[in-house]
Design brief:
- The protein contains 14 helices and 23 strands.
- The protein is of the alpha+beta class.
- The longest helix has 14 residues.
- It holds the Pfam family EPSP_synthase.
- Pathway: Cell wall biogenesis; peptidoglycan biosynthesis.
- InterPro entries: Enolpyruvate_Tfrase_dom, Enolpyruvate_Tfrase_sf, MurA_subfamily, RNA3'P_cycl/enolpyr_Trfase_a/b, UDP_GlcNAc_COvinyl_MurA.
């Protein structure tokens, strides 16, 4: 098993470039199944999750070629409607192949998906939405069997603004007969990017980025080229890392509007940032004031940045309160941070962080993707050399993280 060996205490200087968004490209790859003509995706990050999704659609009949950060996908023929269990079990995002497969083939079989163990993420919202469009859902030996003799537009209210459910319904409705209205839809930037991609292929989607999305079904889609938006969570992680270590770094390929909640909280803590071209320049001395964080669905503070922000505040002046409202099991990084000396107490869905002067190196394990980012940040600020295991989680969402950080002065090495 690989691990990261990180020696802390180095100030960071230079430029770091953010890759395309993992959470945007995964549903877009799935949406490529709607089109029988070639599709080109630029700024597609080379990540473990992206590679798994490429394998999923390849198993369904599509061809996928990668050239650097460009993916070329051609789903001319879909000759299979069952996503392989061994792939689906690795990654929860594979559930979004349901919508496009149902629209294109009228039938899909898929097992319950896997992914990070950060809490219960039920798929009943996905299924209720597809049923409203005219699908019939059955359970068959651990598989979801979803079929339809013809999808029809419907008015769908989501009890919770689930990102995955919104994406699945959007893609299924994109080829349904008539107009679909999704109310209480997810509003994340990744939803907007998916809608943009669908429209570039000839779809008719309006309102993405708001709580109400209108989709007028079309009969077929055409070839297109699309550039994936920058990864706001990767960008936020790097902003927090640079602030915590101290230094002066330009984080390039950032859409600042996607990071408003993070930027507001970092500035409240005393971090200095300024927009510069297509990036954000950040400088600091690593000494900040504690703030309170409450995670919420977009446009609130993103749950994916809760763990890195907690690591950032372990050495802040004062006491910070973290309240997690999205996932009930997203404090698994706390025990690992405490191994490095952090003063953190958990009370239900809240964590109380008392700032200390320094963290100390220790052997730790990344329990999930964002916990891994938190441990990298902590290790870069700690005294001594930290070994981080479980870095396959980190590889799911951060492209070549050790190379990028090394180029701006971090002492981080991948060891087998």
């Amino acid at each position: 098993m690989s691990k990261f060996s990180i020696t802390g205490g180095k100030s960071l200087e230079g430029t770091i470039t953010v890759s395309g968004a993992k959470n945007a490209v995964l549903p877009i790859i799935a949406a490529s199944l709607l089109c029988a003509e070639p599709i080109q995706l630029d700024d597609a990050p080379d990540l473990l999750d992206v590679n798994v999704m490429n394998q999923v659609i390849s198993a369904l009949g599509a061809t996928v070629e990668r050239n650097g950060s460009t993916l070329k996908i051609h789903a001319h023929e879909i000759d299979c409607i069952e996503a392989p269990y061994d792939l689906v079990s690795q990654m929860r995002a594979s559930i979004v192949t349901m919508g496009p497969l149902l629209a294109r083939k009228g039938h899909v079989r898929i097992s319950h998906p896997g992914g990070c163990a950060i809490g219960s993420r039920p798929i009943n919202w996905h299924l209720k939405g597809l049923e409203a469009l005219g699908a019939e859902v059955k359970m068959d030996h651990g598989f979801l069997d979803v079929s339809s003799k013809g999808l029809r537009g419907a008015r769908i209210y989501l009890d919770y603004p689930s990102v995955g459910a919104t994406e699945n319904i959007m893609m299924a409705a994109a080829m349904a007969h008539g107009t679909t209205l999704i109310e209480n839809a997810a509003q994340e930037p990744e939803i907007v990017d998916l809608a943009t991609f669908l429209n570039e292929m000839g779809g008719k989607v309006r309102g993405a980025g708001t709580s109400i999305i209108h989709i007028e079904g079309v009969r077929e889609f055409h070839s297109t080229s699309h550039t994936v938006i920058p990864d706001r969570i990767e960008a936020g992680s790097y902003l927090l890392i640079v602030a915590a270590t101290g230094g002066d770094v330009l984080v390039q390929n950032v859409i600042a509007d996607h990071l408003k909640p993070l930027i507001a909280k970092m500035e409240e803590a005393g971090v200095r940032m300024i927009e510069e071209g297509d990036g954000i320049r950040i400088s600091g001395d690593g000494v900040y004031n504690a703030v309170d964080i409450k995670t919420q669905v977009h446009p609130g503070f993103p749950t994916d940045l809760q763990a890195p922000f907690m690591a950032f505040l372990t050495r802040a002046n004062g006491t910070g309160l973290f309240t997690e409202t999205v996932f009930e099991n997203r404090f698994m990084h706390v025990d690992e941070l405490k191994r490095m000396g952090a003063d953190i107490k958990i009370e239900g869905r809240s964590a109380i962080v008392q700032g200390i002067q320094r963290l100390n190196a220790a052997p730790v394990t990344a329990t999930d993707l964002r916990a891994g980012a938190a441990l990298i940040l902590a290790a870069l600020t700690a005294e001594g050399t930290t070994a981080i295991r479980g870095i396959h989680h980190i590889d799911r969402g951060y492209e070549k993280v050790e190379e990028k950080l090394s180029r701006i002065g971090a002492d981080i090495v991948r060891e087998d």
